[in-house]
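Thread: quick sanity check before group meeting

JM: Hey all, I'm pulling together slides for Thursday and realized we never actually wrote out the predicted structure for the chain we discussed last week. Dropping the sequence here so it's in one place. If anyone has concerns about the input, flag it before I start.
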Amino acid sequence: MNLKDNFSHEEIQALCARSNLRAWLAILANGSIIAFAFALVAVWPNPLTIVISLALLGGRQLGLGVLMHECGHGTLFKSRGLNQWVGKWLCAGPMLYRIDDYMSNHLKHHAKAGSTEDPDLSRYQHYPMASASFRRKLFRDFTGRTTFNFLRTSFRSNGIITADESGRKRFDLWRLLLRLHAGIISNLALLLTLVWLGAPELYLLWCVAYFSFYMVFSRIRNLAEHAVVPDLFNPDPTLHTRTVLARWWERLSFAPNHVNYHLEHHLLPSVPKYHLADFHQALNQKGLLAHAEIMVGYPGLIRKLVI
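JM (edit): ok, ran it. Output follows.
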């Protein structure tokens, strides 16, 4: 699809326009939900509020990842410097990510999506799968094994964990501090804030959510984008990428910050998250989504993932 054949230069400019106000509102909204999740348990500590808090935090952790992705594309704020600073310290940092590492792989995904060279292909190529296998994956996500394996692999690939000739493992603390300084400082700032508020134990909620709900939500979000699509190996994004129209509760879990408009993002990555819904409507009005897979809600999508 050639967008220039269907959209005027002015229309594309309007869709790609960036707003610092809307960007800061997105950061504020995510921070407010995180604060609410902590406050919920602080004021009413019981099993139900703990579960609700963990789910909200897991959704906002995914939300921070989405905002990091926006900053990496340079679409959240107007200036490159602000995108880099906010992306590093306020979005990637709390999630122990490095925005540069993430974007290096992600840009390859954009360039190679719809082909066998897509670096993310292994995440969604083998779907649909047996329901028992899928349940095992979700169980590993929810019990922390997936996150633990991710961190271990990351530490090894970055030289934080190495092995000598005898196979003895060595942990390089200095390299950890060098590569993940933003993550360590961001999490320390969160912990110290909770200490200042008199509730340091609430930081455990952040950690537990990171090892459970976050990874479950992240997996479903990833599969919603490219698994079991009309034609995974077609260069046309309307065939190898999907958009899911999310309900309100799904925007708190699987689809924060308009990440569900993934087809639109692949068609024009320079569109900020706060214009993706408008872009979707414009595409639909011009009849450009006739052959695309647009689903309503994530339960139906999950049913497509298993056989």
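AS: nice. Residues 192 and 198 are 10 Å apart (CA to CA). The chain has two domains: 3-143+180-304, 144-171.
JM: adding both to the slides.
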